[in-house]
Amino acid sequence: MSAPQEAGVEGALATGAVLFALGLVAVPFAGELLRRLPRRVPVFFARWGFSHVLLVGLSSVAAGFVFGPAIHALFAKPVAEGEPEVGVVGALWLTMAMLGTGVLGALTLARRLQPEGLAALGICRRGNPRGMLAGGLAYVLVLPGVVGVSVLWPVIAGALGFTVEPQEVLVGIEQLSGIGLWQAVVLAVFAGPFLEETLFRGFLQPLLVQNLRERGGVAATSALFAAMHGVSAFGPLFALSLLLGYVQLRTHRLAAAWFVHGLHNAVTLAIVLLLPDWYASLNP
């Protein structure tokens, strides 16, 4: 590594450490905000079990085999060598199909097993604006910490023996334009967060909280959520997921976790698309 590269890495690490420290300082304030702003919510006990979670997971995997050929036919483009590639838009649509199948299963199970029906997942008619406001303000407070983890994670992962590569979906979206870019933005900011939050925060987290208590359940859900996105994104998404889990736990409003997740994706895409040089400086 050359001297300028080393200086760039050292500067990024210093920036990441400062941002992470600022985020940690803000955590108690964000927690107090989430405890006070939303109205008191009832406690729901998930009546589904781990066998139901496994069933939902298997249905999502099966959907990949069912919808994969059709999506490949719609989005595949020839490449110079080898088989045609579907590209980032096709990959996003396939992911939505798989997540959507899992969500349908979770919604069906909630309605059949829970007296409260979909409310057990946090899908409620009332209290959503207050929950979204609380979650959004908490996100703003801890955002520096999430950015700090994003900067520090490559070093941490490297010390653990992992190699962190640029996230393929962000690299792919950065190269899009026109209708393809708009499709990717809508899927990444609106559809994807709703489907993921329904499965992880609405369906999986209540079960893990019952078995591991609040902190353990939120941490375990966050670890599974981050692991699903691969090593390169694990650290930042684990930090974000801790916030999402706490938002869901305190508001019991899926709309609140969905809003925060979508807001984060929107901020990330805005930085990647509108401030590429600054984004590159944070990831030397």
Fold and architecture overview:
The chain has about 280 residues and is mainly alpha-helical. The chain has one domain (about 5-280). Helices cover about 80% and strands about 0% of the residues. It contains 9 helices and no strands. The chain has helices spanning about 5-35, 50-75, 85-115, 130-160, 170-175, 180-230, 230-250, 255-275, 275-280. Helix 1 packs antiparallel against helix 4 (about 130-160), helix 3 crosses helix 6 and helix 7 (about 230-250) packs antiparallel against helix 8. The protein is globular and about 50 Å long. The mean pLDDT is about 90.
Strand content: under 5%
The low-pLDDT segments are none
Annotation, overall tally of beta strands? 0
Number of helical segments with 4 or more residues: 9
Radius of gyration: 20 Å
Could you estimate the helical fraction of the residues in percent?
over 70%
The global form is: globular
Nearest-integer average pLDDT: 89
**Pairing-aware structural class of the strands and helices?**
mainly alpha
TL;DR of this structure?
By secondary structure, the protein is mostly helical. The protein is built from 9 helices and no strands.
